[in-house]
Amino acid sequence: MPVVIDIDSAQQAVMLTATGAVRGDELVAANRTFFRDRMAEFRACRTWLGDYTQATLEQVDIHHLRILAQISVDAARHNPRLCVAIVTGKDLSFGTARAWENLAAETGWNTMVFRSRAQAQQWLDELSQ
């Protein structure tokens, strides 16, 4: 599975890990499944780290980003205080993540896109203190 989303309950953290070639429909399906199955646990989470450093986004278009943004807006009604860090080293993925960030601004979440996981984790750690 190219997209895995899990929760570390002890850390109150969501971790999305994407690997290999990831299509837009796979991102949408993974997010829909996560929120359908794990919403109760998600409500207690404080951070979300999306790691795309080992992935190549393929066939991800504005339609997928709008769906993902709407999923995020809906989720924010259940957890309005989330801090979201997206990590990617590739220019296309970085731009895609920034586009999602703009489309999902209505969530009110504190979001940031990073080029390194260490920077993202440090930022999340500082915000969640």
Structure description:
This protein is an alpha/beta fold and 129 residues long. 45% of the residues lie in helices and 30% in strands. It has four helices and five strands; from the N terminus they run E-E-H-E-H-E-H-E-H. It has helices spanning 24-42, 62-76, 91-103, 117-127, and strands spanning 3-8, 13-23, 47-58, 83-87, 110-114. Strands 1-2-3-4-5 form a five-stranded mixed β-sheet, with helices on both faces. The mean pLDDT is 95.
Question: Layout of SSEs?
Answer:
Blueprint: E1 3-8, E2 13-23, H1 24-42, E3 47-58, H2 62-76, E4 83-87, H3 91-103, E5 110-114, H4 117-127
Parallel strand pairs: 2-3, 3-4, 4-5
Antiparallel strand pairs: 1-2
Structure characteristics:
4 helices, alpha/beta, 5-stranded mixed beta sheet, 45% helix, globular, 129 residues
Quick overview of this protein structure:
With 129 residues, the chain is α/β, with parallel strands linked by helices. The protein has four helices and five strands. Helix 1 links the parallel strand 2 and strand 3.
**Individual helix count:** 4
Helix content percent band: 40-55%
What value does the average pLDDT take?
95
Q: What percentage of amino acids are in beta strands?
A: 25-35%
Number of strands: 5
Radius of gyration, CA atoms, in whole angstroms: 13 Å
Quickly give the structural class: alpha/beta
The neighbouring-strand order within the major sheet is: 1-2-3-4-5
Order of helices and strands: EEHEHEHEH
Biggest beta sheet attributes: 5 strands, mixed
Kindly report how far apart the N and C termini lie.
33 Å
Rough shape? globular
Low-confidence stretches: none
